[in-house]
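User: Last request for today: this protein with adenosine-5'-triphosphate, please.
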Amino acid sequence: MFELKPMLSALWRNKVSALLIALQLALTLAIVSNATVIVKDRMEKVARPTGMDVENIIAATYMPIPTDYDMAGAVIADLDLLRRTPGVLDASVTNQIPLSGSGSAGTYFNEPNQEIGGENANYYQVDSHFIDTLGLNLIEGRNFTPTDEHVVGPNERHHSEVAVISKQFAEKLFSGESAVGRFFYAGNSDQPVEIIGVVEQHLGAWPGWSRAGNVVFYPLLVTDNHKRYLIRTEPGQRDAVFKEVEELLNNRDPQRVVQVETLSKNLERTYIGDNVMIKVLSLVMALLTFIVALGIIGLTIFWINQRTKQIGIRRALGATRANISRYFLVENSLIAGTGLVLGTAGALIINRLMVSEFSQPTLTLPLLAVCAIVLLLVSITAALMPAMRAANVSPAMATRSV
Amino acid sequence: MLKMQNIRKSYRTDTIETHALRDFSLEVNEGEFVSVTGPSGSGKTTFLNIAGLLETPTGGQYLLDGQEVGNLSDSERSRLRNEKIGFIFQGFNLIPDLNLFDNIDVPLRYRGFNAKERRRRIERSLEQVGLSARAKHLPAQLSGGQQQRVAIARALAGEPRFLLADEPTGNLDSLMARQVMELLEFINEWGTTIVMVTHDPELARRAQRNIQIVDGQVSDLRQTIAQPEVAIA
Ligand SMILES: Nc1ncnc2c1ncn2[C@@H]1O[C@H](COP(=O)(O)OP(=O)(O)OP(=O)(O)O)[C@@H](O)[C@H]1O
Ligand SMILES: [Mg+2]
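Assistant: Here's the final one, the structure of the complex with adenosine-5'-triphosphate:
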């Protein structure tokens, strides 16, 4: 009923225009599917959980003006003031601001005195309020207590006996076994650090880092030349508190420079490039698909106009309106099918290049299949309107025109 | 076989309304070979199109094979065209992209025959018109007379009860025209009813009956037979 054989031989006699449309579809599939992989990858990256209550956290950085500043004393007084401020749930001191793009990292081993191998992780120096301030989810072990905290000078050798680490890092160090109560070693040191707790997830200072999510927290306060506070507010209170923080800190002690930011802003800045990439590629895909749809509409209309006489003859010989519409839809699907088969090959070749030259993610077959099906549906939809119109050609066309 | 009563057909364009057929009544019996003549624009093709269910009349009654066809749906009309009616056109109307075999195959596919049955019918009808050896040729590779014979083969393959031809020899020289005419007479002898529009008075006389259409109506038959030259003026 589908007249495949004669349809193919008729197509063969018009192969140039058919092939052009097929190639256009092939190219579209090759580009769209590769763009989809990248968009999907970026969207997954942007959608990763940060592990924190990002919306309600403010970060304040300050630098004292005097050189002989009592940093430890200031931290105690500032945190006390902040925690008593209305709208504030908790506050904590830290050496780095999450999602800020600047922080510290080290290499860690599960044996002492190692030189090679090891796992890199982002490390924090914090106090016992830190985990609650960020809203991190402690899934194993215990939180820091004030007795875990130590204050060390900027030039002292500092070493913590305990640490809380992220689950991702725990899995890297102990390959799936429980990490609580076990030890690790920083660098080639022989001093063990006991893991007392594990948090579910924390992206750390650099979400774009290949090891993002490997995190170590030490209960340490290093009295160097600047300090940072993280302040978690009650839901909805962030902006109100944000306006006050700088003034509060300056009023308590004017001898310093304070700078305030929100974690939401940091998160937004972190993914700005990814979001631009997602938008641009999506636009390109939409445009290409639109252009290919226009091409198919144009070609189908052109062919139908060229064949009005033939349509009339077919109608006179007994074709129903449905037969005529179906003829053009099947013909269109054959062209689209050819294009998509070529496009599948093209997509895989381009993706191999993208993987090897630009370290982009691999195009999986299911994703490629989804793109091909979407384009097939687009092409059928594009051909639908002209194909329906073709059915309106009168059978009298067979006798009326020469 | 065919019975038309008071058939009217008018075409309306933006500015004018043309009455192509007016109070047109005609009866054609089973097995007849009727030729239709008349001046250009008199309504011959319009009559043939209505008879062949290619167009619907504006008014009047049309019984085909005893069946009232006025209220049939488009797909029922398509099926009737496919099964009962064969068409032969002045311009041959073969599909240029398809070879002879596939051209004859077109109506048989719409009929739903299986591949074996279609092949049998195609080969037989090609043989009847003497073009078996050319099955794989394209229409453009044949002479006009040969193309018209393929068109006849296409009409024959469906074994229609009713064959309609609109100036089937109009594009052919007299030798080829005579060959086509002989083929039609042969088909008619086997029982197919034929209505043929022609401008050729000699061919018109060879039919069993000649009707003349003037100004959208069947004119007086005796007059037509007495003065054939007037008919083609
Ligand atoms: N689709 C149409 N729209 C408007 N007028 C039409 C249409 N088809 C036919 N006519 C008009 O109807 C009248 C009858 O046309 P028809 O084709 O039946 O004549 P004919 O007898 O076959 O002429 P010829 O011998 O030249 O083929 C003519 O005046 C013609 O212009
Ligand atoms: Mg005519």
